[in-house]
Structure formats: C-alpha cells, structure tokens
Amino acid sequence: MDARLERLHALRGTFGSASTAERLALLRSLARVRWRHAAAIAAWHDELLFLAAFPDAVAIHAAARAALERIAGQVARLTPPERKQLADSGLAGTTSTHTFMFGAARWLARHSQTLTLAFPKARDAERLDRLLHLILTTSEQDRFESGEVGTLEWMREAAGGDDPATWLLSRAPTTGAHDDLAWRTLYDDAEVPLRWTLGDSPLSSSRDHLPMRPQLRSAFRALPRDPVGHVMTPLPGIRRARGAEAVRWHDAALGALISRAREVFPTIYANPREIHLAPLGEGATLCVLGASPGDRSALEANYGYVMFSNGVPIGYGGVTPFGAQANTGANIFESFRRSEAPFLFLQALRAFRTMFGVTRFVVNPYQFGAGNEEAIASGAYWFYDRLGFRPAQAAQSALADRERTAIARDRTHRSSITTLRALARGDVVLTLPDAEGAGPLSEQLLVDAGRHATRALAAVPARERAEWIEREARALLTRCTGAVRALTPAESVGARHLMPILAALAKEIARWSPTDRVRLWELVALKGAAQELPWARAAAQHAPLWRALQRLTKA
Prior knowledge:
The chain is of the alpha+beta class. It folds into five domains: 3-84, no CATH class; 95-197, no CATH class; 219-364, 3-Layer(aba) Sandwich (Aminopeptidase), CATH 3.40.630; 366-426, no CATH class; 444-554, no CATH class. The chain is built from 27 helices and 13 strands. It has helices at 3-10, 17-30, 38-53, 58-69, 71-76, 80-84, 102-110, 129-132, 138-146, 151-159, 164-170, 180-189, 227-232, 243-258, 265-268, 341-356, 373-378, 380-386, 394-409, 417-423, 444-457, 465-481, 489-503, 506-510, 514-527, 533-541, 543-554, and strands at residues 95-98, 114-117, 194-197, 239-241, 270-281, 284-291, 303-309, 312-322, 325-328, 331-332, 360-363, 390-391, 428-431. The strands form two sheets. Strands 4, 5, 6, 7, 8, 9, 10, 11, 12 and 13 form a ten-stranded mixed beta sheet that branches. A three-stranded antiparallel beta sheet has the order 1-3-2. Strand 8 and strand 9 (325-328) form a beta hairpin. The longest helix is centred in the last third of the chain and has 17 residues, at 465-481.
C-alpha cells in the first residue's frame, strides 16, 4: 500500500492547520497516481468519500469530489483481473451482480442503467415463466409453451433488440396499479440475478451525493455524558421534503443502498409524500422514509433511513415504531469508520424520539452479532452499550455488567469472540425515563395478532372479505363515536389494515372509556392517511390498545 495513502488514513479525526495542510498535500499528490491494484484504488476511494463527507477545508472538499469524478477512468485502466476484484463494490467503472428486489430493479431500469440478466444457466431463466404469462398474448402462448423455444430466446425476440432485462422491467405496471403486487411477487419469487454495469453512473457510490455547500469540521463530536437525556431533548428543524426535493433525497438514498447491494424495504418502496429530513448538525442530515400506503403493516409503522454528511450517504438502517417503542439499528458504511458514528446515531435516536414519541428503543441481536460475523469482529455490541442500551435478558445483562467492570479496570481489555456471541443472544433496549411497563413488547405479538385476524376471517368467504371489513368497521365506528355514516377513504384504508385484529378485541373495547374508544377510531382513520407519522405518534399514546393485544395473544 502506498505510504501516502496510509498516512492519509492515519490523519482521520485530526484537525488543525497542520493536519489540513498535510492532508491537502497528500490529496494533490495521490491524485496524480496511476493506480495498478484494486485494493489500493478501493482504499483511495474510501479516503475520498470520507473527506467529501467530513472536510476541514473547502479545498479538501473540492479535491476529494474532483478525484471521485475520476474513479471510473482509473478503474478502466486496471487490468481485467484487478478490475474483477472490484466487482460488487459499487465503485464507478465496476459491475455488480445481485438479486435485487423488484422495486430496486425497476428503479435502476427507470434511471436508464445498463442491466443484463445473469442467470448461471439458460434453463434457470425458466423461473420467469409465471411472470411472463402476465405479458403473453393468446397468439404467443402455444409457441411459448411448446418447448421449441427457451425462455431467454423468447425474451430476446420479444425485446426486439433491447436487452431482455430492461425490456422486462419496462413492461412492469406503474406503482399502485392493480397488478403491481402480482408483478412484484412473481418477480421476487423468480430470484432474478441482474448484472449492473455501473460505468460512470451518478448512482455509483463514487458519485452518489446531493450537491450542497459543505460545512467544514474542526472536530468530531463526542458522546454527551448523559446519552439518555440527549435523546429526550427534542430535535428542532425536522421537516417533510416535498415534490422534486423529496425525489432527489429518495434517489440519493436508493443509490447509496443499491450500489452497495443493500436493501431496506421501506426505502425501496417509499411513500414520496413521507420523506422527512432531520438536521443532525455540522452538515449531517437524517433522511427518514416511510413505506408507501399500500405497503404498511397493521400494527407497526415501517421506516427506512439513510444518514448523510455534506450530501454524502454515510450509513443506513430502519426504524419501526411499535406501540411506545421502536426497533432500530445502525449500519455505518465501512468508508466512514473512525468518524463520529456513535454521536450521529444518538442524534438519529433523538430524531426518532421527536418524530414518533416512543419511550423505548430495541435493537435486535443481528445488529451486534447474531449471525453477523462483521458485527462480532467490530465489537458492535459496545457501540450500543456506550449509548445506554442494555440487554433485555438477565443472563446477558449480568455478563455485560462483568465486561463493563473489566473494561473500567483495564482500558486495554477487549471482549472475546465467545463473550460477544453470548451477548448477542437477545435484544438490547434503551429505556427512556417516561417508559411505562416492565419492558418492551415482544415481536411475537405481531405473529399472534395475525393468528387472531385469520380466525376472525375464517368463516368469511374470500369474495366477501372486503364487504365484511367495511361492515365491521362501520359497526366499530358507531360503537366508538356514536356516528352512523359511510367511511371516509382514509377510514376504509385503515380498516383494511386493522379491522380483522380489532374484531378480536370487541369485548375489550366495549369496556374502555368513551375517550379511549374515540381515540381508537382515530387510529383507524390515521392508518389510512397520506402520512403514517401521525398514526405512529397516536399509537404510542394508546396504552389500552397494546395492553389488550398483549392479553389477547396470551389467551
């Protein structure tokens, strides 16, 4: 590895005029290098992204961005074996082969990306046959089903010179059309491998950013002494992006994930009317994306997020409000390690608290090691522990206490792999001072509630389900508010999500106070509203609903 590149990496987190001058000199010197090895160009790329996200001088930001624009050309000059080592990296000039979910593949096609089908064997393409039957005309069926022509051969003919992958995705229905879900389901079931040739794409990790005036750094922010108190402090300035601005942020968020072969469902299938921007300070912004109305869950609110610094995506995750708690986790892209990731995630938790009004945060064990060797190797458990998260189970809690004591005695102490795996056997929870109850809701409640919904619908013929839901919803409207009327469009949508579950709670609801019943009906209406955020906030405050669900699922 070039010694100058190693020195540039060593300067991460240092500030002051001397560091700035040395960093700029290294940048200008390294910009003239003709890279011959994939590992070196990947490391160079990481340093450029880091400096574009966290610049300490305008000249450094400009030099980093200019060098990133030249990455595609530098990759092109590598030998084929070296270039192959960069496959699936997301760098400009490389290729990525991945089984993208339908929404991601359609987004790439709509952005005119170069896509090809990458089935290992021609016969594997037959997995697409059920999907292709949505396209076939009657006059084509006999030949298609005759066995005289293979699936790929037929697609090439049908595409008329276009690439079959692009042709197929161009035939997909518009989002929200009546057959959109069928297309999505059949496409995902076919597990279609796509090869994306990035070239100099603005969607590559090299070029994916939102242009903005950089905010310069003079230091990285440390965690406050009272992380919980920090989360409790409302974060000002959170707003909803609209129109073209919302599209730009969504595209940047998707580019960040898809170029790295990462996918978060609500980010892929985001509601363009529910893209929230939370300022985290020092040029950092949290983009929180709610799932499209047709993709909402019944009892949860599902959001993805991508974190940006000076317009550069630096990490991602999801946050799922569920009653008065939210399940979440942090994933910082490797290029941005040794920055202020703990503080930024604490700021994200502060934003989530401000937005959703939750009183607990839950992180599932995968995030810090269960089936995740990268998290074990990085000691991710202690990332969450420093923020105040504690194990939900007694055995893990006692083990964490012992390890924390050992670290306090000896700052060089490192938890063993065995210890980290043991700590990753259960959730960790951040409990805020206004939390009620003994602990977080179990996610098993969602499964059990679904079982009761199925039982409620068991005697209803499939063709009559919609009428049953409408009828039950109107009856619940009358019981909750005294009103006798037709449902509003939002109430009808909310009823489709909630009524099979609420029908199982009829006896409980009858015993509630009039105020709690009115608030329940408000939840039904909010579930079908243009944005789900008001529903999440209201659901966090409706303790009788969650207590009733817990009793129901234990029955």
